[in-house]
Automatic annotation (TrEMBL):
Pfam families according to UniProt: EAL, GGDEF, PAS_8, PAS_9
Positions of the GGDEF domain: 454-587
Record-linked InterPro entries: Biofilm_reg_signaling, EAL_dom, EAL_sf, GGDEF_dom, Nucleotide_cyclase, PAC, PAS, PAS-assoc_C
Start and end residues of each EAL domain: 596-846
Region Disordered, residue ranges: 1-25
Ranges where the PAC domain occurs: 130-180
Record's protein name: EAL domain-containing protein
Domain of life (superkingdom): Bacteria
């Protein structure tokens, strides 16, 4: 089309801009015509004048209504051409009318398919309104979501479509804020449909109810089978009395209802205060959803009932026993005094903590307790780790309530006054942090067992990743973790062995195995299971597993020191292989360790013996295939051991600290080769070199790089240094200073294998990083593995947001290259283009 069509209403007025033709006016006044003819012509002129005025009014109303609509309105021809646009549309798209009218609809909706008008016209032919959500585009290229309602219209005699676009930006923002609020609020929130089925539960609700992924939730709105709902008086609450069900049935808000949830398997009671609010859809007379908000009031309900009575009875540690149900409740201090791995929840469990004669005395006192009589007893018990304790137990039946089944009282630890000397003796044998045996006590225990001529097994336990928690969260959190780990060990070992903290994050378990040869392995497996659950610190959770080494007498040693040494060696090998496992000592293991020592020796001298060399893997433009740089990769061909895998010897060098010296060699050799290529007329090739975190901290990296650039007369941008994600969380001031100095030299800095480690964005933005490298771990799964696709998309988004360069590693096929290119990754490397090449072969590629 050459321009926008005229307004169809303007044609109704005829020629001359809608005025009565002059000839008609003159004829009506012509005296030569008969009078009746003149009157007829005069009436015709009046009628035409009135019709013209009506057309002008209609046109004026059309324009007023068309431009008064607050949403963008467009008239579109059947072929998709925009015929008209109101003022709201011009404002929304930030374009003048002439840039849109006469243009295809793609100027506003560039994402529409070519045949987009077909479904619209089909819907209109059926007498329906066509509704779709799309993204519209402004003049500056920015997008905004809209909901478009389309209807048919006869425009200038043509079949056209009128489309009204409603901006959804505010609604989307409101939805995001609503979702964020649900997830951040510390109240549990559950949304159910009218049939009671679960629609949504926020994180707080799942945490309070202990519902994990995969837990089956009944469709009728009832609780999972392991839970039982209770009224405030302890009786079972039927489904129809749930606050949510009442809100749906009665159509009103049900406020602050206290109900209990009893976990049948865990025998855990949880009290909640629940408010349920029904939701009505527009025009509905019955609720179609119900929102329930609840908070945990277990402590308030239990402690408030105990407060007055415990206060009257000296308030040391409170307890309450319900004779009818057999349920026992302990205050936190009372549970602490008994010092069990699991606080007793019945009177029988509490009596089991006492010596048999004293347990019988307390049982009799409970039976004799009446409203007017109580009891006051000093009792001796034994803690889970075998230590003796003394408690003073005071109790009486509930006063003022006829037939009360409750007996309440206090619990006071009097161990110090009863056994001061014994306590000191025990303390001398105990680790002060965990309460376990200490090193000296455990050595004495092993010597005693060996003197009895029975087979003994030693389990040497080291906590995996403990150093990370200790470094990141501090020593206080590390101490808490050790104390919690000790309790898990106590539960796992039980009465089958003795436990000691042997130092740092290392523990020792010793057990006799003459009557049960499989006991050491069984204990080791129980310990591994005990550490399968992560350790919580505030809102964070850390996975800290255990590596265990086993040694037995007499085959692995006949004295304490030898057994411990061999168990330690087995533990070290287990940690080196897989972590979170157990391994028994064998002579072959000892030989393996000697071989590893030889390996370390050969590695330490490899650079001096000129056994290292570098290969260079090309980095290419994924669109054009043009070579844009290279990554220097170290290779080791040992004269005695042969060709060695890089991941093997680099990990070994990291552990021994040799990586610093090896890294310095790699830097020098890479700079020398870049200078050699330049001297051969091949230009400056930018080479990426991996730098260990130990190398960053253990040497003056900045001074070394500056000296190499000066020595080989290279510009700073000829070198890119790649670091692991560890630098993102360990950004000590010296790290920040080193990075700033390297950037001042013009050296590029990148994070290698981004996404595998910590990926802390807060730290990423604080360091002067120019690029990220997408790990081959995730590249290998695209485009078929949705998890890997999601990670790649997330990393690409991070790189775009922070304006960082992005390189993909490990590209092995064309499908991966196409996916990454479409994702916006500009540069890649991998076997699809070339493996690591010798310098001469790389020069040919140049």
């Amino acid at each position: 089309m050459n321009g926008p069509p005229p307004d169809p209403l303007s044609k109704a007025s005829g020629e001359g801009g809608g005025t009565v033709p002059a000839e008609l006016e003159a004829a009506a006044r012509d005296g030569s015509l008969p009078a009746d003819i003149r009157r007829l012509l005069a009436r015709a002129a009046d009628a035409l004048r009135a019709a013209s005025a009506d057309v002008k009014d209609a046109q004026t109303r059309y324009h007023a209504l068309f431009h008064a609509v607050p949403d963008p309105v467009s008239v579109i021809a059947a072929d998709g051409t925009v015929l008209d646009l109101n003022r709201a549309g011009m404002a929304a798209y930030r374009r003048p009318r002439h840039e849109i009218v006469g243009q295809p609809i793609h100027v506003l909706n560039p994402d529409l398919p070519e045949e987009h008008m077909g479904p619209v016209l089909e819907a209109l032919d059926r007498g329906e309104t066509y509704v779709i959500e799309v993204s519209n585009m402004r003049a500056d290229g920015t997008r905004f979501p809209v909901e478009v309602h389309s209807a048919g219209v006869d425009y200038d005699g043509r079949r056209c479509v009128v489309a009204v676009a409603r901006d959804l930006s505010r609604r989307r923002e409101a939805e995001v804020r609503y979702h964020d609020l649900l997830e951040q609020i510390d109240k549990g929130i559950v949304i159910q449909a009218a049939d009671g089925s679960l629609l949504h539960a926020n994180s707080a609700a799942l945490r309070m109810l202990g519902v994990g992924e995969g837990t089956a939730v009944p469709r009728d709105g009832s609780l999972p089978a392991q839970w039982m709902a209770l009224r405030a008086d302890g009786s079972e609450l039927p489904l129809e009395e749930y606050p949510s069900m009442r809100a749906l049935q009665e159509g009103r808000v049900v406020r602050s209802t206290v109900l209990g949830l009893f976990h049948r398997e865990q025998r855990r009671l949880l009290w909640l205060s629940v408010t349920s609010i029904p939701h009505y859809s527009a025009g509905g007379d019955r609720p179609d959803q119900v929102l329930s908000m609840f908070s945990d009031v277990t402590g308030l309900k239990r402690d408030s009932a105990l407060f007055d009575r415990v206060q009257a009875l000296a308030s040391i540690g409170g307890w309450e026993w319900d004779r009818a149900s057999g349920q026992l409740y302990l205050t936190r201090e009372a549970a602490h005094i008994l010092d069990r791995a699991r606080a007793p929840d019945s009177m029988d469990a509490m009596l089991a903590c006492l010596q048999a004669p004293d347990a019988a005395r307390l049982r009799q006192a409970l039976a004799d307790a009446g409203e007017a009589t109580g009891f006051d007893l000093d009792l001796q018990g034994q803690r889970a780790d075998g230590r003796a304790f003394w408690v003073r137990v005071i109790g009486e039946r509930g006063r003022g309530v006829a037939g009360s089944a409750l007996v309440t009282g206090t619990l006071q630890d009097i161990t110090v006054s009863k056994h001061g000397e014994h306590t000191l003796r025990v303390a001398a044998r105990s680790d002060p942090l965990t309460g376990l045996l200490n090193r000296d006590a455990m050595l004495a225990e092993i010597d005693g067992l060996l003197a009895g001529a029975q087979p003994v097994a030693v389990l040497y336990i080291d906590l995996d990743r403990f150093k990370l928690v200790n470094d990141v969260l501090g020593h206080a959190a590390g101490d808490d973790l050790l104390a919690t780990a000790a309790q898990r060990l106590i539960r796992a070992v039980g009465d089958d062995g003795q436990i000691a903290r042997f130092g740092g994050d290392e523990f020792l378990v010793v057990c006799g195995c003459g009557d049960d040869p499989a006991r050491p392995e069984r204990l080791a497996d129980a310990i591994l299971d005990a550490f399968a659950v992560g350790f919580g610190f505030g809102n964070d959770e850390f996975v800290v597993t255990a590596s265990i080494g086993l040694a037995r007498s007499p085959e692995d040693g006949v004295d304490a020191q030898t057994l411990i040494q061999h168990a330690d060696a087995a533990m070290y090998e287990s940690k080196r292989r897989t972590r979170n496992g157990r391994l028994a000592y064998t002579p072959a293991l000892a030989q393996s360790q000697r071989d590893r020592l030889q390996f370390e020796t050969q590695l330490r001298h490899a650079a001096d013996n000129q056994e290292f060399h570098l290969v260079y893997q090309p980095q290419v433009d994924l669109g054009s295939g043009r070579l844009v740089g290279a990554e220097a990769l170290i290779r080791w061909r040992s004269e005695r051991l042969g060709e060695m895998r890089p991941d093997h010897f680099i990990a070994q060098a990291e552990g021994t600290g040799d990586i610093v010296r090896i890294g310095d060699w790699v830097l020098r050799e890479a700079c020398r080769q870049v200078a050699a290529w330049h001297d051969d007329g091949l230009g400056i090739v930018r080479v990426a070199v991996n730098v260990s975190y130990r190398q960053l901290l253990g040497s003056d990296l900045m001074a070394s790089v500056r000296g190499l650039l000066r020595e080989f007369d290279l510009p700073g941008d000829a070198l890119e240094l790649e670091f692991t994600e560890r630098v993102l969380i360990e950004d000590a001031p010296e790290t920040l200073g080193n990075f700033a100095a390297l950037r001042a030299l013009g050296v590029s800095l990148a994070i290698d294998d981004f996404g595998e480690g910590y990926s802390a964005l807060n730290y990423l933005r604080r360091l002067p990083i120019q690029g990220l490298k997408l790990s081959p771990m995730f590249v290998s799964g695209v485009p078929d593995n949705q998890s890997d696709v999601a990670v790649c998309e997330a990393v690409a988004g991070i790189a775009r947001s922070l304006r960082l360069a992005l390189v993909a590693e490990g590209i092995e096929n064309e499908a991966q290259r196409r996916f990454l290119l479409e994702l916006g990754v500009p540069v890649g490397q991998g076997f699809l283009f070339a493996p690591g090449l010798a310098p001469a072969d790389f020069a040919k590629r140049l």
